[in-house]
Write a structure and sequence with these properties.
- There is one protein chain.
- The protein contains 9 helices and 12 strands.
- By secondary structure, it is of the alpha/beta class.
- It has one domain: Rossmann fold, CATH 3.40.50.300.
- The strands form 3 sheets. The protein has a 6-stranded mixed β-sheet, with helices on both faces.
- The two termini are about 15 Å apart.
Length: about 240
């Protein structure tokens, strides 16, 4: 279980996140959406430990991880898919999948996971994860590597960014499969309605605050009032 207690963050003299309180239950698929500049990506990076909050606490399975570095959070079972995937000169796609799975993957197993993100493995396994790949290819390879980790919490920051329509349709299928076989929680930062529709819960951020929490199947006009949630969080 992930708990965010009174998270605040400022940058360049502007407050980006304001007193964020939220509890993510195990096994939930949650989508975070909102206008550009509302703090979505910053919140995702704070959960992963890429950015440190100015104040507030983050708990993972009851353990305070607020000051814990990224590698230790990863060892606890938290994974992150970047909006702009990282390139690795000298590392092949097969190498990356091996590192992600923490075991030696057979070519067949590597092919299977690449197929889930719509890539023909024979064309990619021996290629380097570098500038020779397009943004959409890198995005799908990164998603495959995150899947291989089988993490207790997987965070995707706008996974649809930079991919074509066919790839996006494959991405929706991947999230459906992850949700159906969920052994951990998924948090997706997204504007895409098709992703929002398959989430168990939608968090709407506005001006750095949680404005609405919408259960699956209900329109964004329906929401859980966050005032009581925030008040109870302040008491913790």
């Amino acid at each position: 279980m992930l708990e965010l207690r009174n998270i605040n963050f400022s940058a360049d003299g502007k407050q980006i996140l304001k007193d964020i309180c939220y509890t993510l239950e195990p096994g939930k698929f949650v989508a975070i959406t909102g206008p550009n500049g509302s703090g979505k990506s910053t919140l995702a990076k704070i959960i992963m430990g890429i950015v440190k909050p100015d104040s507030g606490k983050i708990f993972w399975s009851g353990k305070d991880i607020t000051d814990m570095p990224i590698n230790e959070r990863a060892n606890l079972g938290i994974s992150f898919g970047f909006q702009q995937p990282v390139r690795f000169k000298g590392i092949t796609v097969h190498d990356l999948l091996n590192l992600s799975s923490k075991s030696k993957l057979s070519k067949g197993a590597a092919c299977d996971v690449l197929a889930t993100v719509g890539l023909c493995a024979n064309d990619y396994l021996d290629r380097e994860v570098n500038a020779s790949l397009s943004g959409g290819e890198l995005k799908r390879i990164e998603i495959a590597s995150v899947i291989m980790r089988g993490s207790k919490l997987t965070i995707f920051d706008e996974p649809e960014a930079g991919i074509d329509l066919w790839s996006f349709n494959s991405l929706i299928k991947v999230f459906h499969e992850m949700q159906n076989n969920l052994s951990g929680s998924i948090v997706v930062i997204s504007h895409q309605e098709r992703i929002l529709k398959i989430a168990d819960e939608i968090i709407l951020l506005s001006d750095g605050m949680i404005e609405k929490v919408v259960p699956r199947g209900e329109p964004l006009e329906s929401f859980i009032d966050m005032q009581d949630v925030t008040a109870s969080c302040r008491k913790l």
